[in-house]
Amino acid sequence: MKAYGDITSVSLNANKPGSGFVSFKTHDQAKEALEKTNMKEKINDTVILVMPHIYKKDNDLYGKPKAGGSTPIVKNQKENFKSNIFVRFLPKDITEEKLREVFS
Q1: The pLDDT value given to residue 72
Q2: In this model, does residue 19 exceed pLDDT 50?
Q3: Got the DSSP string for 3-63?
Q4: Euclidean distance between CA atoms 89 and 6, whole angstroms
Q5: Which residues, at least 6 apart from 47, have a Cβ–Cβ distance to it below 8 Å?
Q6: What pLDDT, on the 0 to 100 scale, is given for residue 96?
Q7: pTM value?
């Protein structure tokens, strides 16, 4: 088993430079990656943010938050993310291969 789990795919977000996605084989492996990184990882002296990824269509299943309640995305991140993690603040020169290496 890899340090954070078995990766099925890695992609950089072309629409939002500096962000990307890492997909693990199972939800448990993605959850373990989040726990082991404490939601932070370092790439070439740059600290990146590691978060659960919630598909927009999954988030849309929830209504608007009630007064004083948490937002649907927060509820989803705690309960319903699948096997993807979202990474932000990636260095500009990062490649998919390097991102895979960091999480492998």
Answers
A1: 53
A2: yes
A3: SS--EEEEEE-SSSTTEEEEEESSHHHHHHHHHHHTTEEEETTEEEEEEE---HHHHTTS-
A4: 23
A5: 40, 41, 89
A6: 93
A7: 0.70
DSSP one-letter string for 78-93? HHT--SEEEEES--TT
Residue tagged 């291969």 (tokens): 97
Q: Give me the residues paired with residue 24 across strands.
A: 7
Per-residue tokens: 47: 């600290």
Long-range (24+ apart) CB contacts under 8 A made by 52-61 are: 52/77, 52/81, 52/84, 52/85, 52/86, 53/21, 53/81, 53/82, 53/84, 53/85, 53/86, 54/80, 54/81, 55/82
